[in-house]
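Researcher: For the annotation table, I need structure tokens for ECF transporter S component. Please keep the output clean. Sequence:
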Amino acid sequence: MRTKSLAVAALFMALVMVTTAFVKIPLPLTGYIHLGDTFIFLACFFLKKPYAIAASAMGSALADVIAFPVYAPATLIIKAVMALIFCLIAGEEPTFWRCVLGAVAASVWMLAGYYVFNSVFLVGWSAALLNLALDSIQPLCCSILGILAIQTCRRVPFLMSKRIR
């Protein structure tokens, strides 16, 4: 089982990295939306907690090494805690409302983590605060997609049988 868990975790790490670094949906005013956080939520659904946390953190940090290296250390910590929060709240049986609560809590943590990092190390408190509203579009979109994907997977017996629990 450990080999299977490692292999699936590596696949999720790659999915998170590729969908964060390379699959981008441009926004009209600022930046883009990536789908990496959607796969973080799916990793939390399919994998045991330690594997989901590792895949989420390392996949996101690797994407930042490619695109924005200055963020990589912060991303490693922020995304690990984000996955942990979602895993703890959504639990073993991720009902719709548990997923919603988990995604909201994980997204709030992520926004707060990047706000503090940007404030302390990059642009200062006021500039980071201005970006906060625009930065919230990303986790909102990925939370909606992640919740819908998990709820769809829960209704497909074949996919439920592939969960490593």
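Researcher: And a one-line annotation?
Model: The radius of gyration is 15 Å.
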